[in-house]
Design brief:
The chain has 5 helices and 10 strands. It is α+β, with helices and mostly antiparallel strands. The protein has a 5-stranded mixed sheet with strand order 2-1-10-5-6. Strands 3, 4, 7, 8 and 9 form a 5-stranded antiparallel sheet that branches. The protein binds the ligand Nc1nc2c(c(=O)[nH]1)N[C@H]1C(S)=C(S)[C@@H](COP(=O)(O)O)O[C@H]1N2 and molybdenum atom (MO).
Length: 196
């Protein structure tokens, strides 16, 4: 009788272990699908979307003063109003049509962080705006500091008088032909790298 009970307990314990390990596998598979499936529209539950939201963006890489910026700290910088900003997908579909938004120039953020340059010919840097789902957009030193694009690239925090949706800050470039590729919501970091 005792041995029977013992075997029963062992069996239950064993099946629990199997259950747990298969659960673990399940979650890691889901996470992977989310990160690798860049091309498909992932439908996230409201709870999962919330997990993508950052209250701060990190400005890091080849900069003298790494920064952590919140919507409040952006509001204390030079805030620009942007009229009629449309998010146009590569397919041509208009995904968003903002009458008015507020943001700060990427150029101003980078000037505050100060790119680590060794001399005036040291200007081959690229800047990555990265989101929590690892979606990213790339800018170059020349287009931000020596081209009209620099006056049209922003970190947004307000759209039509309301906080932005899908996170708290969005990177945009207003003079791109199709604006969606460099429209980065769930913005998490602005990274500066020197071309090696
Ligand atoms: N973080 C993040 N930003 C992103 C994307 C994304 O998948 N993740 N998709 C881009 C694309 S392809 C489009 S068309 C627009 C609008 O995306 P939505 O249709 O998912 O709102 O956001 C862009 N910014
Ligand atoms: Mo898109």
């Amino acid at each position: 009788m005792k041995t029977k009970n013992y075997i029963l307990i062992l069996l239950i314990a064993f099946s629990c272990t199997i259950c747990n390990s298969s659960k673990k596998e399940e979650t890691s598979v889901t996470e992977k699908t989310l990160q690798n499936d860049n091309d498909k529209h992932r439908i996230l539950s409201p709870a999962d979307s919330l997990k993508m939201v950052n209250h701060e963006i990190e400005v890091k890489g080849d900069v003298e003063f790494p920064l952590q910026l919140t919507v409040d700290s952006l509001r204390k910088m030079k805030v620009v109003t942007i009229d009629d900003f449309k998010v146009v997908c590569q397919s041509g579909e208009i995904k968003k049509d903002d009458k008015v938004c507020k943001g700060v120039l990427l150029k101003d953020i980078l000037e505050k962080a100060k790119i680590r340059q060794t001399g005036h010919k040291d200007r081959n840097f690229y800047i990555v705006a990265r989101a929590s789902d690892d979606y990213k957009a790339t800018f170059s030193w020349a287009e931000i500091f020596n081209n009209p694009t620099g006056e049209n690239t922003f970190t947004l925090f307000e759209e039509n008088g309301k906080p932005v949706k899908n996170g708290e800050m969005i990177a945009i470039c207003k003079n791109d032909i199709k604006t969606s590729p460099r429209h980065v919501y769930w913005l998490k970091s602005i990274e500066v790298y020197k071309v090696k």
